[in-house]
Amino acid sequence: MLRTHTCGQLRIADVRKKVSLCGWVQRSRDFGGMTFMDLRDRYGITQLVFNMETNAVLCQQARELGREFVIKANGEVSERSNKNPKLPTGDIEIIVESFEILNQSKLPPFTIEDNTDGGEELRMKYRYLDLRRNPVKLNMELRHRMAFEIRKYLDEQSFIEIETPVLIKSTPEGARDYVVPSRVNPGEFYALPQSPQTFKQLLMVAGFDRYFQIVKCFRDEDLRADRQPEFTQIDCEMSFVSQEDIFYTFEGLVKHLFNAVKGINIDNFPRMTYADAIKHYGSDKPDIRFGMTFIELTEIVKGKEFKIFDDAELVVGINATGCADYTRKQIDELTEFVKKPQIGAGGLIYLRYAADGSLKSSVDKFYNPDELKKWVETFKAQPGDLMLIMAGPAAKTRKALNELRLEMGSRLGLRNPDTYKPLWVYDFPLLEWDEETQRYYAMHHPFTSPRPEDVPLLQTNPGEVCANAYDMVINGVEVGGGSIRIHNRDMQFEMLRVLGFKDEEALSQFGFLMNAFEYGAPPHGGIAFGFDRLCSLFGGTESIRDFIAFPKNNSARDVMIDSPSAISEEQLKELGICLIGTDRNKI
Amino acid sequence: MLRTHTCGQLRIADVRKKVSLCGWVQRSRDFGGMTFMDLRDRYGITQLVFNMETNAVLCQQARELGREFVIKANGEVSERSNKNPKLPTGDIEIIVESFEILNQSKLPPFTIEDNTDGGEELRMKYRYLDLRRNPVKLNMELRHRMAFEIRKYLDEQSFIEIETPVLIKSTPEGARDYVVPSRVNPGEFYALPQSPQTFKQLLMVAGFDRYFQIVKCFRDEDLRADRQPEFTQIDCEMSFVSQEDIFYTFEGLVKHLFNAVKGINIDNFPRMTYADAIKHYGSDKPDIRFGMTFIELTEIVKGKEFKIFDDAELVVGINATGCADYTRKQIDELTEFVKKPQIGAGGLIYLRYAADGSLKSSVDKFYNPDELKKWVETFKAQPGDLMLIMAGPAAKTRKALNELRLEMGSRLGLRNPDTYKPLWVYDFPLLEWDEETQRYYAMHHPFTSPRPEDVPLLQTNPGEVCANAYDMVINGVEVGGGSIRIHNRDMQFEMLRVLGFKDEEALSQFGFLMNAFEYGAPPHGGIAFGFDRLCSLFGGTESIRDFIAFPKNNSARDVMIDSPSAISEEQLKELGICLIGTDRNKI
Asked: Which sign does the torsion angle of CA B467, B472, B473, B479 carry?
């Protein structure tokens, strides 16, 4: 090794040792006869000292080192007179006796500091410099630690990690596939997996009753802010289990992770049906760090000639504890918030229950104080509370009120990123109706089983069928989802028919799976976690990009290596493909 | 859980427990009033017993269960009168009280036994059944255990696992890339990585001084028997290290693996230069489980009018200890072996040193006994030995003699698959001259550094330059290879020029890396292991396919899912590509 120690290692006990350190020049300060230099590596920062009086030549050379130069410094560990309690190495410094420049550095395009002056685009272009910054480095270390602890827990639970192929087959269901032209089989393509779903089911058929994999998946979607074309999944499957067993096993995983990685004990793992989540939170991923659950008023507000309520399918509100002193301006802000196009509500009704017990609402001319008292009782509000009410079509209104609830939670400081409240949401609908294409889509995926008691409904009223499907939600974020799968060929066929597959399509796309079901497929189910998102949740931020070493931008482009890029005519020809509009000139 | 125990779990201490087991019907035997059934799961086999006298209905139902049916059986653990010492569960059996068919099975297309009657093609098509067979299952478990222990060791050594992107950029150097058309950036393509080489180097620039990743890589090659289009690499890189540090660290990894996974202690890790390996073994991956090293005779055999030796650049042989009693027929077989087209030698000369001290050779008419005595001395042969000698152009002759040496090693039982002899081969040439394209290619890859003392030769005699490159070889198999890298922009540029890159090509392909070298790139080096191959070596077989859950065949096809396959016109259109020869009709 070029070094004897890292820059995070030396302590007071090491004083008088001769050491060699390697690292990057973080900054240097000249004080008359002395030069102090912070040398940085992955493990920390150590102060180097050069003395003009004892070694002027060396000190002069040191003063010529620029930021981010890589050096090897040799010297003696010495106790600092001016200790820095913020640094683990802050008790010591190195009196440098000689050094060597291992590599020079141009001036970096942004500062390598916790709070950098570099913008997103610049940081992505020079990601190798961005990764030197402490917050980004810590994210990568967190990710490594999490992956390691996940594997440790699952290994202890007899899961085995099996790699499934990356070059698979394109299927029309789900998101768009990335495809890979085959040179050896001209005119044919592989697809990159959106998930190893069918392969993990085949592994269950193969008898590996506890499988997992931390695995890259791919989706060619139009990217939203928080999506990446390639992302990482913790993919798990078990045989001979009920939903209860899955809950137990993966609560265990998440508890282990919080404990091992963050020192947090999660003792409570509540469960909520999809129907309850929608009814009480307006969302299938409720943030239960705070209450403020939905209170329905539909029954008690009708018939008072307030047209908005009279016409509404649903009148529903939340009670913001202690917010009765909100000003007119604050309430107007909330009204503007819910009227934003992304939320799209028509407006917001309020009922203020002042500390003195008086009531004031925006609909006083339709409802008398006795009637408003009834609202207060329904909300179980206390003096000092502010009730916020919305009305309209049920689904849309709940969705909008969910946004308002989250906004109020944030305003009231009820969404502390260091508090973690996980829960299971279960009993999801099996199917979603799509107005545009006039067909049902699988809400989870086509391999999810219906609840046994709902099977007859598949023929008569598919939209009402509940699935053996569940999501794990933490702090309003869906971190994982799964289901008990279909393991019967006939049921799988029926499911594909409900989804509009012609029999021959079903066979050509999923024949291999349905054939496998004929050879002793065990009952099985599983779950997949979004690993990037789980890391960002543990890291306390929302952006998954900060937890990916080399992410792509919103145009699915890697600006650092400048990819995607054109390939040669020769490559295209070998692959038997051409770019649309160019073939004509070539034949 | 549907079960209380697995089929590998119950012991004599569990007698009288009420249990439920789930598994597959392996086989059943009817003995008059009794039916004995082997129930199999991933963990083992447990014997179920049905008794016609005590429960005729149940026993009759059990007799109707076919092979590979999945059942849940409930009953009581009982001591076996006829114990089976070969099974861990062989002391007990289950007196079944009830059972449930969880799924039926058609008759499998081949037997689910250690030695199956299924051929390769059939087993691949029904891979989910093949994976039920014990030897294949054990391979998957071995692979899991190895990956886990690799991560454990490297984590303890402060390595962090960082995921690098799968959608990267196509580069012309090396093997053919698999490419992925970009829908969002029409006419442009991603490439799948042949290795994360440049990314791991960027991670070193980023300051992560110990990186690893167990990662899928991709090569669009014409497949040989033992190649897969997608394969898994243990990819590692370190900063501030010399070759010595890499050797030490990864000897440690391999020692840990042998110890943790196979209980074998490796105490010796010899090193050999490339030049010595070629001179003494005729191969850069010598199998050192046995000696029989090359002895050169060129100097002492010339000038005796034996034209083959007189014309030969090299005369070289091996001494096969104790083989003097080989018959004429056996020697003829060896001669035929070396004359096979894959080996291509002209012939084989032998010198037999009989137990009685007499000498007999195939060239007795050119060499008198005194001259042959000299050969014997050079070989350090003993009475009873057989010397096998080849002559011709140096490189070709060494290559052929290497094959003969390995063949003799196998014939003499010197290549025990349970004996493991690793070594490092180092000081590889930097470049290889290719006659066909009349240019140099990088022997390892273009990022490998030349030995500092050889740098001046780059201009004058590039073929003579030695690289800081090394391979780890175990039992004649190259399991890993790496190098100390170039970390200087100018040197990287020069290297690419030597490889025939025009400056603008070098910049457009590798500009991001060379730019990164300008911002404080530390000295660094690394290694990559072929994980599939390492697994097969640990598993004691040669075929990597047996250690991949879902391998592709020699046409890069997955016969189980039938991939690659055609994709829809709509998909092609969205991607902006067409199949050659079809575009004309579409515009």
From this structure: negative
